[in-house]
């Protein structure tokens, strides 16, 4: 499949990204994701459509991760010098944020946002419901889904 569609996917991603090396990395990530998840790649009726969906999701994740990193860097710049974390603490926080991002990969955007609003911003379910324009019950379900995803991944990592 890589030989048949790798060049096409690279060109497709290069039209959407500024750096060809980043596009090549994303092509590799896309095929790695396919090999890990798809039971039989040959059975796909529309392999390019499937590749496009996977690549788009990975591209979105990359942009979200970059936005998260930039927000963290901005918050560090705005913090008083006396509260500035050491280089090691910054690296640990960034690593934790990226791991959290990976754990939430695959969740619906509203579920992910609800979880982050709760865990990072400290908002209550009522506040989150108002921001997302959903019921508190829906926020409770979102949080349950996010916790279940994190738990599944932690259990898989231990095995």
TrEMBL record:
Coiled coil: none annotated. Residues 98-150 form the RNA polymerase sigma factor 70 region 4 type domain. It comes from the Bacteria. Keywords: Sigma factor, Transcription, Transcription regulation. SUPFAM superfamilies: Sigma2 domain of RNA polymerase sigma factors, Sigma3 and sigma4 domains of RNA polymerase sigma factors. Pfam families: Sigma70_r2 (PF04542), Sigma70_r4_2 (PF08281). Residues 1-67 form the RNA polymerase sigma-70 region domain. Belongs to the sigma-70 factor family. ECF subfamily. This is Sigma-70 family RNA polymerase sigma factor. It comes from Stenotrophomonas riyadhensis.
């Amino acid at each position: 499949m890589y030989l048949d569609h790798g060049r096409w996917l690279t060109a497709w991603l290069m039209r959407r990204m500024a750096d060809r090396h980043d596009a090549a990395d994303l092509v590799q990530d896309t095929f790695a994701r396919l090999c890990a998840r798809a039971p039989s790649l040959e059975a796909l009726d529309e392999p390019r459509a499937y590749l496009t969906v996977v690549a788009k999701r990975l591209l979105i994740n990359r942009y979200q991760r970059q936005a998260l990193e930039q927000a963290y860097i901005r918050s560090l710049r705005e913090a008083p010098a006396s509260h500035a974390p050491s280089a090691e603490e910054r690296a640990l926080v960034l690593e934790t944020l990226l791991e959290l991002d990976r754990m939430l990969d695959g969740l619906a955007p509203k579920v992910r946002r609800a979880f982050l609003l709760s865990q990072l911003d400290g908002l209550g379910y009522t506040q989150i419901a108002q921001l997302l324009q959903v019921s508190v019950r829906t926020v409770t379900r979102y949080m349950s889904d996010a916790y279940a995803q994190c738990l599944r991944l932690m259990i898989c990592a231990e095995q």
